[in-house]
Structure formats: C-alpha cells, structure tokens
Amino acid sequence: MIVDDHPLVREGLKGVISEAADLTVCGETGKIREAQDLARELNPDIAIIDLSLEDGNGLELIRRLKSRYPELRMLVCSMRDESLFAERAINSGAHGYINKHEVAGHVIDALRQVLAGKIYLSPDVVERIITGFAHQKQPTAGSSIDELSNRELEVFWLIGQGRSTTEIAKQLSLSVKTVETHREKIKRKLGLTSAGQLMRHAVQWDLEQR
Hints:
This protein is α/β, with parallel strands linked by helices. It has helices at 7-17, 32-42, 58-68, 82-92, 103-115, 123-134, 143-146, 150-160, 165-172, 176-190, 195-209; strands at 2-3, 28-29, 46-49, 52-53, 56-57, 73-78, 96-99. It is built from eleven helices and seven strands. Strand 4 (52-53) and strand 5 (56-57) form a beta hairpin.
C-alpha cells in the first residue's frame, strides 16, 4: 500500500515496484483516514508512507497503524531530513526510512529487507545512531530541533505550513490551550522570544526540508 499525497510520486513508485515480480501494489491514497480504511480492507503486508500527507503527517499514521495492525510492516519514503526524522519514524513504529532521492535505485531492496523482518536505514543514519549512543551527553549540530518531542515537532511543522493554533489543535485532536503550551515549549527550546520569530523559524525550516 502506498500512502503519499502526490499522485505523480505514487505513479512513480508503482512503476518501479511493478518491475519486481514478487511485489504488487494493492492500494494507494494521500490521506490518513483513507489509509486506515485501506489497511483494514486490503490487509497489506507493507505500507510505504510519506511524512507529509493531505490531512496530517505520517508519524501519526504510523502510530495508529502500529497500534491496530502490529504485523503490518511500514517503510517511510520522504524528502524530510533523514537525520532528524528516521529515528522518530522508527520509534513511532516504522521499520525503515528511505529518502525520495534514493527511491529509483533502492526502494525494492528496502521493501524486501523490511518484509524480511529487518530495519532499513541508510549507512549515514546507522552511523549517526551508533555515534549518538556513544556520545549521548555531547550536543550535536542542530540539537535545538533534535530536542523537540515528537508532538512539539508536529506542532512546529504545522506552524511552518502557516497553520493557526486553532487549525493545529483540530488537526492533532488537541485543545487550543495544549497547542499554546507546546508553542511556548518550542520557543524556549529554540531560544526564540516571540510568535513572529517562531513563525519565521518554522517557515524557513519547512522550506529547507522540501
């Protein structure tokens, strides 16, 4: 099952996967709600999931699918910074992470590894994770963003997309007060002092991730 909000990307993935005799695409969508319905109806062996979806983000979908379908294997395929999102995706329940730039040459291998019960990550991310364990108390470049919790990162992400506090609360099924609390924590962790600074920082970060 392919879950990506860009039809052209889905077509591209289907084209690559169609060349593998042992793999078949059984369904596709760009929305979280439809992905959950398809998972129930089609019972796929594996789902390829983007992090940016029409009605939310892939991390939330991964958590929901992991809870309801623990046997479902999930491979994240995204343009987002692998060094920041790969570990979060794995911690949310995914079994691998591949950057869209590498899809043509590596997605079949990634799918087969994940279906075989393995975790698929690029060598760079594997090295980063190992290094992180070895130097847990040493700050790394970009550590300000790294310090955000998954929920704070989701809020920060949506701020960068121009969503209001009310819109963010509705999308994440949170109260407005809770979102405001997350905003304050994000500002503190990133060393920002105003809502304007937070917006500019979030927008710039979102643009850099595309």
